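Retry 2 of 3 after timeout on previous attempt. Resubmitting structure tokens to design endpoint.
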């Protein structure tokens, strides 16, 4: 039986066990690019140093077998560069993001300026209405329509049969930072509880915005 991979993942290496190329059955191939992380799994901005690796991969993988290149997150320099160079190679690209970014601090200003150029030749997909509005503003996509896909749920993850109770439980698992939308939870949870006494929240996670949640 002929076996071939369907998805290729490109990410920075994680010495000493995540280096080189790995095949993960049944259909996943991972390229670990030799960029060394410096803190919290992040690497230094590597704009244009990623090009030799990105060019080599389509040579190894016939270009007509690559139908789509996907980049995720506005802070991924490899993702930005991958989108820009993929367009020159004639490969369709898509960008996704689910984090919310500000517009005042230096990191957000620089990242948003970079995003404006990157999103000129790519389809952007957002996972929520707040995320869509945030991406449209950051990327200056006022005249372009954004896709807001429905949330597909695998059958085995569907809720079980309702319990014999009137309590509604809302579960949040996230990193407590602004870009993950914790401020929306802090603002809306009290209103929901006031309007619906039978609602309770189960919240898991940690982060710098924990104090805002505890104070509320």
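Retry 2 succeeded. Sequence:
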């Amino acid at each position: 039986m002929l076996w071939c991979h369907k998805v290729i993942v490109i990410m920075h290496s994680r010495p000493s066990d995540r280096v080189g190329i790995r095949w993960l059955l049944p259909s996943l191939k991972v390229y670990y690019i030799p960029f060394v992380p410096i803190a919290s799994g992040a690497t230094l901005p590597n704009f244009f140093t990623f090009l030799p690796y990105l060019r080599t991969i389509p040579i190894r993988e016939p270009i007509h077998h690559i139908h789509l290149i996907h980049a995720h997150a506005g802070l991924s320099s490899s993702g930005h560069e991958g989108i820009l160079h993929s367009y020159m190679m004639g490969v369709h690209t898509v960008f996704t993001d689910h984090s919310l970014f500000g517009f005042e601090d230096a990191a957000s200003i620089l990242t948003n300026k970079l995003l404006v150029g990157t999103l000129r030749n790519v389809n952007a997909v957002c996972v929520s209405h707040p995320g869509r509005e945030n991406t449209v503003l950051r990327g200056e996509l006022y005249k372009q329509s954004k896709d807001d896909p429905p949330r597909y749920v695998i059958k085995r993850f569907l809720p079980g049969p309702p319990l014999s109770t009137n309590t509604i439980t809302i579960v949040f698992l996230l990193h407590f930072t602004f870009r993950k939308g914790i401020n929306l939870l802090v603002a809306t949870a009290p209103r929901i509880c006031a309007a619906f006494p039978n609602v309770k929240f189960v919240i898991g996670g940690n982060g710098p915005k924990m104090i805002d949640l505890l104070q509320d």
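Attempt log closed. Strands lie at 7-12, 20-24, 28-33, 68-72, 92-97, 123-126, 168-173, 199-204.
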